[in-house]
Amino acid sequence: MAAGNAPVIDPIHQFEVHPIAKLSLFGVDISFTNASLFMMIVLAVVTLIMIVGTSGRSLIPGRLQAMAEMLYEFIEDTCQSTMGSHGRKFLPLVFSLFLFVLFSNLIGLIPGTFTVTSHIIVTFALAAVVILTVLIYGIAKHGMHFFGLFVPSGVPKPLLLLITPIEIISFISRPISLSMRLFANMLAGHIALKVFAGFLLMLGAAGGWFALAPLPLAMIVALTALEFLVAGLQAFVFSVLTCIYLNDALHPGH
Amino acid sequence: MAEKNHSGEDEALKQRLDQLTKALDGKRQETEQTRRTAQKANDGSLGKAMGTGFRVASELAAGILVGAFLGWQLDKWADSSPWGLLGFLILGTIAGFWNVYKLAARPTGGGKPPEA
Question: Which pTM value belongs to this model?
Answer without folding.
Answer: 0.77
